[in-house]
DNA sequence: ATATGTGAATCAGTTCACAGCG
DNA sequence: CGCTGTGAACTGATTCACATAT
């Protein structure tokens, strides 16, 4: 194996690991903050601390983009901001549609994070005829019937789904058919999409369940889970947060 | 070196990989749907398809929980629902507070995903005195001043931060000091927490930037198919702000 | 002297492929 | 048989540690 095809051309922007891509926005945010404070340069150590990662990882990440630092000195903040922005495709304008203007959709439309950084809410779409024409975040809601036309007229390639779960796949199919190739899904459903379409999901319920898992573990670390405790011990367990062993173990057991 | 932190090879299958934990809610959702349709058993193949993963991964995941399947048959739906629920800590009640009742916080309070599965919105907290007493999703908003008391009175161990970025760390510190040990952060900030506190973040802006990265690459790839000449056809899509402009370097990226 | 950039080592997660059980 | 459960191989990500450049 490994005959041939393994070596990548060392040119930048080819083959950046997914995990690295996912951290670039984090670095960018930290750098932007530094830029606003007119900090001219930053070391991998400092920047890593600001982004909440370790410095070796950060350097490795940046090495995939190219050699943008200066040995013995650090990284030029402005220059890095520009390079990362470009790498992420933020130097261009991305029109986005939000489908499903309920509580969440409306909140997203109003969310500042959308407007910043090259993302522009091009249209809001909802299935409820009563919503049609009503402005949300200053943008009139349009009816689902016109979805395809809206996508095409605005050259939209990124769609946000904030519909109820039951409608999500259907909306997704229509978005994809109309030309959308990236979807951010807030509906609690697994979306099926053809190859070439990226889906990222944001799922509140899943995040909470993951937290609950760890929370449960903290609360009863030694008692096996064989017996489902009635567990109203949550309140009692709270106080245990104060004590944390240095290298752990021997967690306080809390009887109800 | 690194102080050989051997993961605990506990007597039983304690030590479920993080990646597996993150998928359990997905399986649970698929199983719940089957359960509602009164499907008695399901194979790893079918369930994997419903959850959007591959079947080997699913079987491996389940193997960390124990041997809950029957060879030649599959998994008992009801039984698995119970086992996964228990593993995730969903057989108990988790009171949750939401801090920051703006558009997003209100949407979260109204979100159905919260109410289901053992999570209960115990309180809504906001810094705006004008909000105090106003009901959101049927729950009166309380003022930040009372945060500590609210946490303690309700035995809250999971907090959701939906404040503006500037307030998030401060809120986080107070939550942790009051006994919260799991935080779901919607604010676009890296939170610093002591050991023993779990943070998960949900960041719209980051997700969009990741999508933009892939989107940009799709656009650029159509022409650079390794064989074709550098046709200008798809170059139109790629705005080609390729290298630094002759004059200003200042990128026109505005943060928020 | 100092901090980057990167091979090499390590660790985590995924997939394979088949033994083992119903 | 069919389908689970799992060692083994593999792939990807992280961390280490130091040569390298300023």
UniProtKB/TrEMBL annotation, chains A, B:
Lineage top rank: taxon: Bacteria
Residues in the signal sequence: none
Compartment(s) of residence: Cytoplasm
Keyword field: Cytoplasm, DNA-binding, NAD, Repressor, Transcription, Transcription regulation
Gene3D superfamilies: NAD(P)-binding Rossmann-like Domain (3.40.50.720), Winged helix-like DNA-binding domain superfamily/Winged helix DNA-binding domain (1.10.10.10)
One Gene Ontology term from the biological process aspect of the record: response to redox state
Residues where NAD(+) binds: 100-105
DNA-binding region: 26-65
Gene Ontology cellular-component annotations: cytoplasm
Function: Modulates transcription in response to changes in cellular NADH/NAD(+) redox state.
Family: Belongs to the transcriptional regulatory Rex family.
Protein name (record): Redox-sensing transcriptional repressor Rex
Species this protein is from: Streptomyces spiralis
């Amino acid at each position: 194996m490994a005959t041939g095809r393994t070596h990548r051309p060392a040119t930048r922007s080819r083959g950046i690991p997914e995990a690295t891509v996912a951290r670039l926005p984090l670095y960018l945010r930290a750098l932007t903050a530094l830029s606003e404070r007119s900090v001219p340069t930053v070391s991998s150590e400092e920047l890593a601390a600001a982004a909440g990662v370790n410095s070796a990882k950060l350097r490795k990440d940046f090495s995939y983009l190219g050699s943008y630092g200066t040995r013995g000195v650090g990284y030029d903040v402005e220059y890095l901001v520009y390079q990362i922005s470009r790498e992420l495709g933020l130097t261009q304008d991305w029109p986005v549609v939000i489908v499903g203007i309920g509580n969440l959709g409306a909140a997203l439309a109003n969310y500042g994070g959308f407007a910043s950084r090259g993302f522009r809410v091009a249209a809001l779409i909802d299935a409820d005829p009563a919503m049609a024409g009503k402005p949300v975040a200053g943008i009139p809601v349009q009816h689902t019937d016109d979805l395809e036309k809206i996508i095409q007229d605005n050259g939209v390639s990124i769609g946000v789904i904030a519909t109820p779960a039951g409608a999500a796949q259907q909306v997704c199919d229509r978005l994809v058919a109309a030309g959308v190739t990236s979807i951010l899904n807030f509906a609690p459903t697994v979306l099926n999409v053809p190859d070439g379409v990226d889906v990222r999901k944001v799922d509140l319920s899943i995040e909470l369940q993951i937290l609950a898992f760890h929370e449960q573990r903290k609360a009863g670390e030694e008692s096996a889970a064989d017996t489902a405790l009635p567990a109203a011990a949550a309140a009692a367990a709270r106080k245990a947060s104060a004590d944390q062993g240095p290298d752990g173990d021997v967690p306080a057991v809390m009887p109800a």
